[in-house]
Amino acid sequence: MAVSVANKLGKGISPKAFIEGMTKNKDAFIENYNSFSWANEEDKQFFESLNYRDDLKVLILTADWCGDALRSIPVVFRALEVANLDTEVFIVEQHQDLMDDFLTLGGRSVPVVIIADSGGHVLGRWGPRPAHVQELMIQFKQDNPDREAADYNDKMMELRKQMVAKYDEKGGVHSSVVTELRELLSGF
User: Fold this and answer.
1) Which domain of life, per UniProt (predicted)?
2) What are phi and psi of 66, to 5 degrees?
């Protein structure tokens, strides 16, 4: 990834400020945040081991209206708190330029968790949803390339129901998000 986020470092808000400023889904987000639990001690120990990594920066591109963010970002916040990594949140509507550097399947999908070094060089990214849930969206886009089709919105609504059910697979959202973040961060 040749993208740099150096111009964004220090320009985001804290996870706490994001939660406090939420105007949609706030209660459900806080409930998901408070219900977080580690699937296993090894994952918790891995994130604790990152406490000494002052060379990593985390930028989270998200929005309070997003269902995927509602499920995943409380988990990301909790894991990163244990890691004590420098974390900033960027609300997508206020940072379209950043969003355009991190498109998913050619579209603007959030959340996106961006891992950068202290100079702003992007090392990797996660999102907008766990891989096993994202598989449904990838297949949907392949099967439904015409967003103007008469039945596109109905099919999208059905897909979203399937995605909600899929979040509970593979140990649930906590386990899948933590596992994927751990795999990503293990590479740096």
Assistant:
1) Bacteria
2) -85, 125
What letter does residue 156 receive in the DSSP assignment?
Answer: H
CB 97 within 8 A of CB 7: no
Cα–Cα distance measured from residue 105 to residue 135, given in angstroms and rounded to the nearest whole number:
12
Q: What's the DSSP call for residue 59?
A: E
Q: What does the angle CA 70 – CA 11 – CA 177 come to, to the nearest 5 degrees?
A: 30
DSSP 169: S
Looking at every residue in the chain, the average pLDDT score rounds to 93
Helix ranges (DSSP H) in 22-108: 26-34, 41-49, 67-83, 96-101
Going by C-alpha positions, the residue among 46, 25, 16, 1 that lies closest to residue 110 is: 25
Structure tokens belonging to residue 82 = 């244990």
Could you read off the pLDDT of 100-123 as tens digits, one per residue?
999 998 889 999 999 999 999 999
User: What is the distance between the terminal CA atoms of the chain, rounded to a whole angstrom?
Assistant: 14
Q: What does the block give as tokens for 103?
A: 């498109």
Instruction: Label the pairing between strands 86-91 and 56-62.
Output: parallel
CA distance 5 to 120: 5
For residue range 52-69, list pLDDT tens digits in order: 899 999 999 999 999 999
